[in-house]
Amino acid sequence: MPKTSGPPAWLKDGFGIVLLLGFILLFFNMANTADDGIFTLPSEWLVVNTIFLGILLEAIPFLLLGVFVSALIQVFVSEDALNRYLPKNAYAALFPAAVLGAIFPICECAIIPVVRRLIKKGMPLHVGVVFLVGAPILNPVVAGSTYFAFRDDLTVFYLRFGLAFGLAILIGGIMYLIFKNRDQLKWRSEELLGKESIDIKQGPPQKQHRLKQTFYHASDEFFLMGKYLIAGALIAAMFQTFLDREFLASLGANDWASTAVMMAFAYVLSLCSEADAFVAASFGNLFNEGSLAAFLLYGPMLDLKNTIMLFAFFKARFVLYFMVIVTIAVFSAIMGVQLFLL
Length: 342
Known about the structure:
Shape: globular
Radius of gyration: 21 Å
Transmembrane segments: 15-34, 46-73, 93-115, 127-150, 156-179, 222-242, 277-298, 318-341
Family: Belongs to the UPF0718 family.
Structural class: mainly alpha
Strand content: under 5%
Order of helices and strands: HHHHHHHHHHHHHHHHHH
Protein name: Permease
Helix content: over 70%
Membrane topology: Multi-pass membrane protein
InterPro entries: DUF318, UPF0718
Number of strands: 0
């Protein structure tokens, strides 16, 4: 039987854009419509609207910058060029891999497919892990957004990037001890038979089409990540409005509980690393610096949407080890910082 084709891609994209714009316009005009008597809203939802818009308006410029630079890298930078700068020694490659991760602004929404491509082209598994956990945090766009969000007190800024650099190297080293360079990718049957994908057969993009492809990738990535940002900002605003402040304050007073709670928030909210600092800053009056740093470390390394992608691209055993190691490493590092430094 012939396969029935679904709706065209432009129709789905257009419908999504209309819904997105309608959602944003609704929140922008919620207070006006309530004042005009069009419909009545409880006062708590007006507070949600104010907090939501504040988070969103601060984060969108950095999100736009991040997706555009990420698209430039995807189109113009060859994966093979990265491999030439990495030492052959397994442990010696960890530090320069973390440094390279600090150069390229690839957020966690795009890092898993990129790392998979790098590994397929010959990058060692443990170096890919360093990129996987380090690049979404260490890149300059995230540094700029984090600095702007915490510009009044840079403690969280220094904690985020100092710990991210060290943890990326540590987690990469641990994964090397466990898996060495054994293949942990999931391969399609076409790949196992030695057939190249359609994209590879087509060859590198022509120079005259590269700018067009850059804008295409940037717009595609913006709408992909934008929905997670909007959902995260809305959930954060609802948490701050409806959760019992005394309960949150009691959690924030306990280093162990507050760190675990903020790591759980980071996993569930699944925010883009180029915008998560603004959501974290909105919790600044309820949680301490260590807990906020845990939120900003754990989310880009491991969240709900990335977990799904990891299981799609990597073997289940590798993903489970990765999740456990990242969780223990981040929690232990934050506990150590809070015990000895804060």
